[in-house]
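Please produce the structure of this protein holding glutamic acid.
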Amino acid sequence: MAFAFWRRIVIKVGSALIAPSASGCSTRYLLTIAHFIAQCRLAGTEVVLVSSGSVAAGRNAIVAKQHPLPINIKQAMAAVGQSRMMASWSQLFDFDCAQILLTHDDLQDRRRYLNIDNTLRTLLANQVLPIVNENDSVATAELKVGDNDNLAALVAIVVDADALLICSDIDGLYTANPRLVPDACHIAEVAQITKEIYAMAGGSHHAIGTGGMLTKIQAADKATKAGIDTLIINGQDANSFSRLLNGEPSGTRFIRQQERLSAKKHWLLNSLKQHGTVHVDAGACAALQQKGASLLASGIVSCSGSFEKGDAVLITGPQQQPLAKGISQYSAYELTKILGLHSGQIAAVLGYCPSEEVVHRNDLVLLN
Ligand code: GLU
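Below is the modeled complex.
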């Protein structure tokens, strides 16, 4: 799938592009990337940016003589650098940017996952550019995703992106590290990520970021398995971006392994345990089956089982026939209080309204 068809993309930009000299941010490469992001948005493609650079951008503000840097020093650097990095991006755009800081735990926990998903959707619907990074100042090793390549893949899965663009300091994957092996060949397309592909990636080759080619392949592996095309492009070369805008190939493209819908379907149907049942009326049944609509409280007749917000539920029709499986934005307790209500009445009854939909259409799979 090429640029013209991208509805939503995630772009990952590494520390080597944000703070090339590892002392504060530089606009050297960011200007071109910002221009590309603006062009994507003008063409109607929603963009989520995953930006590294907090540690590198804050490095010169904290005195540190130790090697390797202790975790508390890196966390202090990240605290300084994160705001520097956000400021650098913000000055390049004439639209709002929003900071989202995540840890691995946030993406594992279903409730927090849903909140992240809702926040990102709301930001995109309001034409705000979400800028995501790992919450480096609070996350210790076991809480971390660890590198922003893998974080970007997880974010791409959360926002249901069409493509993941990983900006590197090299134009994609080579048969060997071209900095060490001069006759290494560039690979334009990867149909399947095999162990040979992993072997080509070797280890990290850059001193500034944590990643390297290996984490980029891991990210491509995760994203393509979830139905998302992944590109590793050279973020230092303006041509990589103009080629993409012209619909031409750029960098290395990893082809998605399945349709995006079936990836989510697979996840919903097989990975998520069903915690309860929600019975809907004939109107909601038709809206779900024929219009691809979300499930609203107004169409719900009753519910059974004990489920929490974020749990998967079975949705059944007027004859108790199974219709769909989806993730509920409300607990069973909350739902019993809002059955049959219009979305606008929910806040008056519960005191809050986390979502207008009980099950959002993106979190719902119809059963045949
Ligand atoms: N989150 C780290 C930072 O902002 C970078 C991690 C990475 O480079 O992959 O400094």
